[in-house]
Specification:
With about 140 residues, the protein is of the alpha+beta class. It is about 15% helix and about 30% strand. The strands form three sheets. Strands 1-5-2 form a three-stranded antiparallel β-sheet, with no helix packed on it. Strand 3 (about 45-50) and strand 4 form a beta hairpin. Keywords: Transferase.
Length: about 140
């Protein structure tokens, strides 16, 4: 390996796609800058649904759409942030069936393994965010 080669990434990663992204209200509310370090933009396969004040990610799609979801990859600098994120996302590892979201492993389109929160409820007739980007959806006002 040459002197200019990047060192392998050793911190756990989390993929954020909604109101927990850097610059969004959840990020500020939880003061995530203390526990997470932005790695950069990335995408995952799946579908993003507009659930009103926040989005819901589903792997694979439900027949109404498949595609990709755009978000941010963050390195977890303090592992204590994971239970904090779990609580915010209403994920109870002891009771996944009754959790609103599940924390799962996903491979991003750049090939990195990361944690992601997948919506654990029926999306009903919630609209699909065709762009796959919550930030674009919010910026457009649609």
């Amino acid at each position: 390996m040459g002197a200019d080669a990047a060192a392998p990434h050793t911190d756990p990663l989390v993929f954020l796609y909604g109101i927990l992204q850097q610059g969004e209200e959840g990020y500020r509310e939880l003061d995530l800058a203390k526990s997470l370090q932005l790695v950069g933009p990335d995408d995952v396969r799946g579908v993003l649904y507009d659930l009103g004040d926040y989005p819901g990610y589903k792997t694979g799609g439900t027949g109404r759409g498949t595609g990709h979801v755009r978000g941010q990859l963050h390195a977890v600098k303090r592992l204590s942030v994971l239970p904090q994120l779990d609580a915010y996302e209403l994920y109870d590892p002891a009771d996944p069936t009754n959790s609103d979201y599940l924390r799962k492993r996903v491979t991003t389109l750049s090939g990195r393994e990361a944690w992601i929160y997948e919506y654990n409820r029926d999306v009903g007739d919630a609209p699909i965010i065709a762009s796959g980007s919550w930030k674009e959806r919010r910026a457009s006002g649609n």
